[in-house]
Amino acid sequence: MASAGPAPAATSTQPSLPSGLAVFKTIPYLFMLPEIVCGTWVWILVAATSVSLPLLQGWVMYVSLSSCLLSLLLLLSYLFGFHRNNENWRVLDSLYHGATAILYMSAAVLQANATISSESGPNSPRHYQLNSAASFFAFLTTFLYILHAFSIYYH
């Protein structure tokens, strides 16, 4: 018996990675812009306080600023299609967002501690409100990074 031709190529069941504006239409990648915006708000709000606890809030500012910049670079790489639909980018994305979620959780807890410490002190109402808002955005950003990491993993 002669074969009828070459065997059909196996098709991948994994959806392709988005490029261009399709990034803003797919679920895991849709979280990237809110992650950047909320992380920027964390950095701005902490910088607007007197940073009375430099060790704690310095870590918060480092995590928020570095995560914001790395997430922006990752978003731009998706927008311009640098991934070339390579599946290794999916692993890189999941690992980055998982690790960043852990770092952001530590920063959010430290910011909450700084918020409690700023309740009494000079300029307490204004700094307490700014620290409270920074804590809220830090926990919100942590949640967004967790959602992104798990949605990539289960996608």
**Count of discrete structural domains:** 1
Count all strands and give the number.
Answer: 0
Estimated structural class: mainly alpha
Number of helices: 5
Question: What is the strand content?
Answer: under 5%
Query: Which consecutive residue ranges, at least 5 long each, have pLDDT under 50?
Result: none
Radius of gyration: 20 Å
What percent of the residues sit in helical stretches (DSSP H or I)? 55-70%
**Pattern of helices and strands:** HHHHH
Which helices and strands appear, and what pairs or packs with what?
Layout: H1 27-30, H2 32-48, H3 54-79, H4 88-117, H5 124-154
Keywords: Membrane, Transmembrane, Transmembrane helix
Pfam family, one: MARVEL
GO molecular function: structural constituent of myelin sheath
Can you give me a brief rundown of this structure?
The protein is mainly alpha-helical and 155 residues long. 70% of the residues lie in helices and 0% in strands. Helix 2 runs antiparallel to helix 5 (124-154), helix 3 (54-79) packs antiparallel against helix 4 and helix 4 packs antiparallel against helix 5 (124-154).
